[in-house]
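BUG: 3D viewer hangs when loading the predicted structure for this chain

Environment: internal workstation, default settings.
Expected: structure renders.
Actual: progress bar stalls at 90%.

Input used:
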Amino acid sequence: MTTVTSINEQSNIAATTNNDLIGRRPRPVFFWSNGEVMKWLKRCCEQYYELYGDKFLDNEITGRSLIRIQEDTLKRMGIDNPSHRDEMTRIILKLKLKSDMIEIKDLERKMHHQQQQSLAHGPNGANGQCVMIASNKNHQYGTTVDR
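Structure tokens produced before the viewer hung:
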């Protein structure tokens, strides 16, 4: 099925969708406080929270430092059991990967929005012309109609 919408309509839809997603999206890990890291540790590393939570608290691990933690960092923090370090490193890497994927999707969404804006305000969209976008499931097509 093919639909035709104006750039303004598409911009409004994109803005609404982006605002909805931003409103529901959790705070980026990079900006987490030590308290937020402790909540994450309790929720996602429950078996290690009781054993090592105090080490994360004492070392004031924030989100910024959490995503940089490696196995040797955990060892310096006093986590001596190698299998615990391996498991915690794996869980932290999964968190970092998930965070990176969200950031990549945000960048792609932003680029798409900028492309739509440049199409609407570019040379074909100026001087009283109306730019229309026809889209189907896989493609978008632009056309200019004189007013």
